[in-house]
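Dear support,

We are seeing what looks like truncated structure output for some complexes. This example has two components. We would appreciate it if you could run it in full and send us the complete token output so we can diff it against ours.
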Amino acid sequence: MAKRTAQDIRRRNRFDALRCVFAAAGPVSRQEVAAATGLSFATVANLVAELLEAGVLREAGHEDSKGGRPRARLAVNAERGALVGIDVAETSVQVELFDLALTVLRSVRLPLPQNDVRPDDVVDAIVTGVEGLSDATGASPRILGAGVSIPGLVEREGGVSVFSPYWSWRDVPLRSLLAERLPMPLYLDNPLKAGTVAEMWFGAGREVDDLLVLTLRAGVGAGIAVDGALYRGATNSAGEWGHTCLVRGGRECRCGRQGCVEAYVSTRGIARTVRELDAESPLLDPDEDAVVSKVARAAARGDAVAVEAVARTARHLGEAAADLLNLFNPQALVLGGWVADRLGEPLLRQTRDVIAAHALPATLQALTFQLSTVPDNPVSLGAATFALEGFLDDRETFGTVAAGRRAAREAKARTS
Amino acid sequence: MAKRTAQDIRRRNRFDALRCVFAAAGPVSRQEVAAATGLSFATVANLVAELLEAGVLREAGHEDSKGGRPRARLAVNAERGALVGIDVAETSVQVELFDLALTVLRSVRLPLPQNDVRPDDVVDAIVTGVEGLSDATGASPRILGAGVSIPGLVEREGGVSVFSPYWSWRDVPLRSLLAERLPMPLYLDNPLKAGTVAEMWFGAGREVDDLLVLTLRAGVGAGIAVDGALYRGATNSAGEWGHTCLVRGGRECRCGRQGCVEAYVSTRGIARTVRELDAESPLLDPDEDAVVSKVARAAARGDAVAVEAVARTARHLGEAAADLLNLFNPQALVLGGWVADRLGEPLLRQTRDVIAAHALPATLQALTFQLSTVPDNPVSLGAATFALEGFLDDRETFGTVAAGRRAAREAKARTS
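Here is the complete output from our reference environment:
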């Protein structure tokens, strides 16, 4: 049975209150936070007091409340500290430094070896990136934590890369390896989870509770948010949609099975579609990301092969997504990842038509379908958000010690 | 954003505490409830006081606590009131009367017309059933509520049968129609949701938080529990797994599409498999439920067609389930419904092998897979559980009025 301690509930409320401040266009009042979260004013006042004391929020002026007592406005205290978000991809590592409001301060991309990438190569690239950014910032605020996204299956608690699809790693204790060389708290997860959390804090997830995020890159996955929380499943592998069978006896997939969704709508799948349409197509390129970019540009100028490649991708994507939507009946579906970034509106529009033809009426009734609106790289942003969530969980700052300190101070204030 | 008020949290805690008492083999102490739910002892003591006062729980002796103060034991107060669970199926309506411990007291099954079933026919059958059971119980406890399960899409808040797949109804206000003739609170939902709730309170869901329940009857669905709560989706249609495409261009489905899961593993799908194997098979019968029963018996004695029909059903079921499991990564998968009841262990065993060959290692790692252990009819039991949940939500009994009454009494006790 689910165990939800008072501590869990308090943590969840703290997240919700802070997400609400992040989601707002400008500073907000405690009353607005209470209205948006459904929490009582007293609870919100308590959470805000805690976040103000920890320096995560700051007072940001007052609003006129029509003759009543003016209400204090709150904003994220961007200068409180920095967060690092790291996106380990197949050929490179992107390291980004954020302020506490999750605005990018600096960004660097480091290449990985072309072949035979070992754990040490990844660790070296990350450490070089983080140290470079820290040095460059000079007297900048302390780094409160770093989140690392690495493809494949991740065991979060232990910080282990259980399996990497690109390099066929097994059970690499990546967090321990990094902890030997980096001083800040480290959080490990995969790009699907990172991208979904970014969407929850900064994209379509600000508006809804139940959300699916389809991420189309070299791999394909469906990030799942239920009741405003990331759904991970029993072993943190929920959302493995890429290897759902779409075409029985269809294309071979790198997983060894046939006809998987990923074999059709990933960068590799789209490159293969182009090759099937015209084996001599000038759109082909050894770099599959480049193929997708070329298809996008060529389709825009009416190139027949590119137009047909987009149409076929939309058909496969729409049929697969319709089944997924019938199952989850979410409020919002978001399309993200390199493929969605490049193929954009035409892919969205054609996929929407296929979904409309295949999903059940009840599924379509409440659904919004859109491209990701998360700026920049959602994976490094999401990784940094994991670090923020970790900081909000920190017992020194938010645990019983801090509560005791606060109570003592309040008692003193009452007697003085 | 998710709104979880203090009221929501209190309701959820009340459900969890009570589910814990139901799940136990015998009476339990407050300490055991606190340990099982993760709630603090003080919170549990509070919830228990409320449930004792409402008469839902009763004191049931004491346990020896090894020299300490003896701990009071708690049990469900079965005599507090009765609940009704109603399973509206394609050809008949089953009405069952339960005590508050959800033990069946009486049960009746009423036939529906062979053709052209109208809403009035269903309402008449339900009212006849409920009145018959009420009369028979004579001076029995008051009926606290009735849950009605009806196939298809249900709009719960309004109590509307939005769409019925058997009778092609649209927007029938079933709860209003029933409320004109029945005096108790009424709760409407569908068999998939009812069966899943029964599994959560009385089956495999007692042990785990994340659960899938595959229900194979005339229709096929996947009931979803996330973090110990039923997942409904945006329009209460989550779990529509029956019309997931399993075989592109495959069998025609009654939904108008081709190759749906339901076209292979429902009672109708299995009858069709038998017909494809041998159009003259003595296993065939106009009643598709009967075909499945015959297949089960014939397979047990080694009949070649029956054995092959079970093997093909297991292959289709296993392939479809593997994709579903990769997506949800649940702790437990339960197989229920008429098909599972009849084909039982042989279907479970063969399906398990297919899943093992098709699902990802991370999916299989934490998974248990079993037949439903819910006794009797899980749909009417689940419907009665909705009525219990409704009663636990009742503001008169558990709301601020009751809390005020309690506080006043406690204040009086202190001063006297």
